[in-house]
Amino acid sequence: MAQTYGATPAIVAEEREPGLQPSQSDESDALLGAEASARRPKRDGHGTLTSSVGNLANTIIGSGMLTFPLAMASAGIIPGIITCIFSGSVAAFGLYLLTLCATKAPHRRASFFAVAELTFPRAAVFFDAAIAVKCFGVSISYLIIVKSLMPNVVAAMYHDLSHHDPPAWAQSGRVWITILMGILFPLSFMRKIDSLRHTSYIALFSVAYLVVVVISCYFFPLEGTQAPGEIHLIHFTPNFVSTFPVQVFAYTCAQNIFPIFNEISSNTQPRMNIVIGSSIGSAALIYEIIAIFGYLTFGSKVGANIIAMYPSTSLFIAIGQLAIAILVMFSYPLQVHPCRNCLDKVFHMGHLVKTPEGEEVEDEHGGSPDMSHLKHILLTIAIVACGFSIAFFVDDLQMVLSFVGSTGSTTISFILPGLFYWKLSHTDPTASKTLSRAALALAVYGMCVFVFCLSFNIYQVVRPSQSVPH
Length: 470
Hints:
Elements: H1 25-32, H2 35-38, H3 49-60, H4 68-73, H5 77-102, H6 112-119, H7 124-161, H8 173-187, H9 197-219, H10 240-249, H11 257-263, H12 269-298, H13 315-331, H14 333-348, E1 353-354, E2 360-361, H15 373-393, H16 398-425, H17 433-462
Antiparallel strand pairs: 1-2
Helix pairs in contact: 3-9, 3-12, 5-10, 5-12, 5-16, 6-7, 6-16, 7-8, 7-13, 7-14, 7-15, 7-16, 8-15, 9-12, 9-13, 14-15, 16-17
């Protein structure tokens, strides 16, 4: 049976957005006195602003940024800048709505499942199942990318440093993902997303190096760089249809906003706004820099992977390719974490347990205050083993992942945030009607993007010869 978390007196967060209805905990505390809360002290998080921004930014920024110059070439510099900022702003609004909804969930136990129990309880398990599939699909795509990148990186390094061909084993992508799983496997077992902050910092340094590569190669072109094509301020081409969704989904990170909300110290709305603004803002700035300088370097001749456009004979570029592999590799655990948590909810089917005080609660890891070690280990092994097996034997899942990614990303970034907040606020006379309508508009926008991407993917399946590069 659906539980109304807002009625649980001891574990509802004290800080709320003024527009939402207060929970019954306030009435209970008023009746029972201050001792009611004192008996059950609320736990605080240990994450910092820096680690929270780092993890969320690493979740956002991925290999999709290499496609932004092509996106700019499909519309021109001015529309490219505008669509990039627009996509980031819409994604930030979705994250903002999710943090407002998180204050209605049990104290530091916010999740898509907990919020869905308050809004659409019968669909809560299905939402988590969809999110788990989406994160699992993205994690597989990361392994496939690393599998395809590493042989090229090694070949370029050998050529630049020793002028010899690398050994046969070093040219096998399967060997490399097997080796790198030795690093990723233990990282995937981290219970707290804050524990992944150091790998996120390394990944973001890799992003900074790629930015340096793109800027440097514009001002100081490498020998062998092809001459640029035409450059336009405004020039829409048919490719815009396929590149605009790339910009929309380049900001997807909603799957990790609730764990960050649960773990950051003093998770007030202003602090969460800083996390969201800093993460989305830094991602948008990086995307704009790579798009503008990449487009100015190659013009209309730019390809879907800007790094692949530069001469691979340069060690400078070879290190850049290695940076992409590092970025993607350390983004992998950030997909396993939400996938595991969502699967825990699915298998637990939303059952609640009782605390020593007799209260029913559900924490961020599932249906019990602490996910058992056995359950945590089994779920992690299942996710990593299945993902590794698929990536090991399959070289291209682009079409399948495009369906999973486009539909899943649209749902968690736009449709659910809009519907969740609208459901919680539209009947509240004290809530902001403007914000409630904007939330509903976000959900409608998400549905439109969902239909468009699904239709476009189907069209690519039916007419593959007409598909445009991503």
